[in-house]
Amino acid sequence: xxxxxxxxxxxxxxxxxxxxxxxxxxxxxxxxxxxxxxxxxxxxxxxxxxxxxxxxxxxxxxxxxxxxxxxxxxxxxxxxxxxxxxxxxxxxxxxxxxxxxxxxxxxxxxxxxxxxxxxxxxxxxxxxxxxxxxxxxxxxxxxxxxxxxxxxxxxxxxxxxxxxxxxxxxxxxxxxxxxxxxxxxxxxxxxxxxxxxxxxxxxxxxxxxxxxxxxxxxxxxxxxxxxxxxxxxxxxxxxxxxxxxxxxxxxxxxxxxxxxxxxxxxxxxxxxxxxxxxxxxxxxxxxxxxxxxxxxx
Length: 297
Hints:
Layout: E1 2-6, E2 16-19, E3 30-39, H1 41-48, E4 61-62, E5 66-74, E6 86-92, E7 98-106, H2 113-116, H3 120-133, E8 140-144, H4 149-160, E9 164-169, H5 174-179, E10 183-186, H6 191-198, E11 203-206, H7 213-220, E12 226-228, E13 240-241, H8 248-260, E14 268-273, H9 277-286, E15 292-296
Parallel strand pairs: 8-9, 8-11, 9-10, 11-12, 12-13, 14-15
Antiparallel strand pairs: 1-2, 1-4, 3-5, 3-7, 3-15, 5-6, 6-7
């Protein structure tokens, strides 16, 4: 089968499309014929060799956590899923023709494989950081880097929970944020004052890693009210870095419920063939994403 792999840490040029043996579903696992794979920032962070304790890497390594596809192998002790089911979920080495998933759910009606591949890690992360930052109904949450996949999910889940959201993003994405129910403002000089004009901030999430933790602490008044998933300097500011996943099955179940109720939709900004995984990483790293990027297999 075809699979994207890298044998050394480095830039996107280390990614190679190779021929390799197919994986198989062990106990508690399923294998899918991958139809689409989600592209997440954690993918290129791992490829670059950034220190991510939750994702130990042994070289050579495959790439990718998220996939949507058709079940073609069911491991021992697995119930509730059959060969031929359309599922989306999380596993390992999903930039490939076949991948083994450790967590999955049936795809909601009306969702394409391309769309479904963009949800698993994104929704798990969104639910986790909302829980960790401790924001509740009637409060206001500031989201730095709100237009990407995680930001799109955070905005919609927060809105469903009665939380007001102020989102920062580039100029081109202001209407997109407003369409998701956020109070929107831009990055750049004077952004802190622009946020203050929009209202008091009870808690903040940094999803972009753009070096603004000091300002987020200033706006909330307490580093314990700030969580980042993208800035490894978090300890210097007393801010929590969230990098260890919670329950992916629970997150997928909640994603299915939200999607089915029409309360969550994450658009696919761009799709790439498996041969262009490097280009997908370059674009993901550049930021300014509106929704998700996925690979079509």
